[in-house]
């Protein structure tokens, strides 16, 4: 049988060892590293990915010493008693013919604690602490600590280590003039700035020997002012290769960069071009990264000679069986990562355990266990939105007879609105995945089938799950009955005509989505060249950090995004993606106004008070995006009839169309019912 993805599934010979395919599970901190008994859970997490076919796994970043920790209680590998807990992870992975490397990461000025160190005493814009400048003695000790961490990793059974030299962490801080203002032998010229990573690589290689994988994460695009030049990137890559590196992994952008690199609005494989360019200069394997979330995209990169391997972190959170499904020609069954960041990176930056919006079992493998039921029951699920879909599939997989009722002609619920928003096209993939899952698990799907309490009772269901979603909150305002006024559903579902001048009442997630929808003619996510221009990514690499002036976008509409709260517009959006949404609308000239008191709607437009001043917004259309209310009218009748009822998703709590919570509730109920 011909392999559906021959390049992706081809083994990679490293000389002293062999990887079974070209898939590298990229580093991602989970939060389990710091939890009590977290390494037992971490072992289960990585084992599920190894069992799913991944060739090489790289762990989340582990510090080589106390000062390099990401947080005050962050993980480090520096003592012999740390080894045994790591051995749980390596033994679990090795049961499935996969290999695993430990990432050694020194946070530098990104450390979220007062003991952080950096090449120069320059505060990071994303942490509240100013680092101390490293002394010569501290630099030499840090090099030894990297080598010690590698030796302990080898003792713990790891197949290798990855040295984190990108994303703006300590090593990257030394290499870049942006953060290295030293005048000694560790600063100034490029040769001096590159001394630290090369000394670390040499020290590790001397400590662990030749037959041990050594990956170096090379920052190929810093995407910050005073970043490195292309010739410096290549020089460091060549020197790292000569010093004993086995594989070069790509690093794209610092955490403080004002260019998005991984959110859903970034085009797929948006940065493989730089990997391809660097690969021509080096002879060791090169790894492509960022927004590679389907086997088709990965195969294209490898077949086109742009890389030797592909790194995927979040896609393997979303579906641990990604590789096996690809090998079995079941790509349409993959639970595709939608790059939302809501349950993974947002959680990590809030010191919570990471998981995945579309796969809540990620990092909860020992707690959300899908086991066969002792007794099958007949269950009704009303509503085929995210919560209803998630519950139905899990419950049917466990052995229940599940009937899923949906009043409209398609599954997906609110996802059918989200998928239309420019930059959120990945939601099509989630709907496709659930469509296949319903078939595979044997859920009885009933479309165009509105239910009443009486119809559900007559059908003799043992229990009823209401996943009926939300209703838009109605705005009470003089003139609200005007023809000028539309709801967000009128715009996104019914595609009613919207004027050239628009006021949006409500600046939550829905308000931002509608603003994006109304101000975008062609989604730049689907046109990578446009996207690079808009965000100032210098593909010619004529500027330091590959950063050039961003191109303003133009909208045919004049849009006002309004909110009652006095806080910053968009303050409640995701921690790692909210700034992207705000920057996008700002580029398009959207007027974002907080602390608004709505007065009335007239023939001339919308009258408001801002800072106690009357203001008339002369608009053609007013769109209400003022939140939602739970849709749960069946609950009382069913309960009065003695029917056991469960509420999940928006029917339980209506909060900004929270798909993360909705899917998680569905899975949690599905695993225990």
TrEMBL record:
Domain NADH:flavin oxidoreductase/NADH oxidase N-terminal: from-to ranges: 8-329
What CDD domains does UniProt report for this protein, alphabetically?
DCR_FMN
State the source organism's domain of life.
Bacteria
UniProtKB keywords: Flavoprotein, FMN, Iron, Iron-sulfur, Metal-binding, Oxidoreductase
Identify the cofactor(s).
Answer: FMN; [4Fe-4S] cluster
- Spell out the SUPFAM superfamilies in the cross-references: FAD/NAD(P)-binding domain, FMN-linked oxidoreductases, Nucleotide-binding domain
Please give the InterPro entries that the UniProt record associates with this protein: Aldolase_TIM, FAD/NAD-bd_sf, FAD/NAD-binding_dom, NADH:flavin_oxidoreductase, OxRdtase_FMN_N
**What Enzyme Commission number(s) appear in the record?**
1.3.1.34
GO biological process per UniProt: fatty acid beta-oxidation, unsaturated, even number, reductase/isomerase pathway
All residue ranges annotated as the FAD/NAD(P)-binding domain in the record: 378-653
- Listed GO molecular functions? 2,4-dienoyl-CoA reductase (NADPH) activity; FMN binding; iron-sulfur cluster binding; metal ion binding
Query: Can you tell me which family this protein belongs to?
Result: In the N-terminal section; belongs to the NADH:flavin oxidoreductase/NADH oxidase family.
Q: Which PANTHER family match?
A: 2,4-DIENOYL-COA REDUCTASE (PTHR42917), 2,4-DIENOYL-COA REDUCTASE [(2E)-ENOYL-COA-PRODUCING] (PTHR42917:SF2)
The protein depicted here goes by the name 2,4-dienoyl-CoA reductase
